[in-house]
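Deliverable D5.2: sample structural annotation.
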Amino acid sequence: FMFADLNIPCSSNRSELTERIVQAKKLGYNVVAVNRTVNGKLQPNEHTCKWKPVVLPDVQTQEKEPSLVFGRKNFRQLSRLTVVLDNANQVHSLNAASPVIRSYDLFAVQPTTEKLLQQACTELEVDIIVLAQDSRQSFPLRVPTIKMALERGIHFEIHYSCAFGNENSSRNLMSNALNLIRVTKGKNILFSSGAGFYTELRAPYDVSSLAHLFGLDFQSAQNSVSLSATAVIQHAYARTTHKGVIAAEAIASLPDHDKQWKVPDNPETPKVGEKRKRPQ
């Protein structure tokens, strides 16, 4: 599997954005998504994706041991759109056929009311839902609503860069994350940086340790920067193509704990061309 940071905020300063993407690659990420956040109604002429992947210099990743390198060596840059939902009129225009939404690889929403959250969880074709991060959550998270989103393959995102702000921001992030993890039972949690500066980026294993500190078990914490991101990308592909997506991995590339499903070789099984012996 791969490591991914699916929230690198977009910037009009191309060199500054390149600096953050280069830093993410150095830290060992295989995929990054450059995120554009939009408030209000989408305008085709203004909000259609015009971003192009930046040309990166040849950099060395932080990983030294080959056994610690996961996924493909190719570095991918994706585009992402996040729409802040603050009124019900926006919901009707956020459909899968929207040319603005289809111009991006990933699509996320950030509902600001409980009713809009319910609509996002049950109606909207989205890949990621973003809730309050460094500010206090203004409405309750109800289990039935969140469960609907989980069943539809939607992931909930936590921005770990908020932990590096002031004391109040860190406290709110911890409280919101604990509440979200409690309601979701640790399922479909995605940790992203949301980093506005390259100094706020952290290596994948550091992020998984932080996720574990926030209440995820060890495996779920590691998945929050790897398999969850893979699931989001596959969900986005299925959303845009209206087809199912199957991920295949070579058996040799699976870690030992994932090989338990293999059927052990039976020495009594006849080889090709041999007859099966009848029991005496």
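Annotation notes: The longest strand covers residues 76-85. The longest helix spans residues 167-184.
The annotation will be released with the project's public dataset once the embargo ends.
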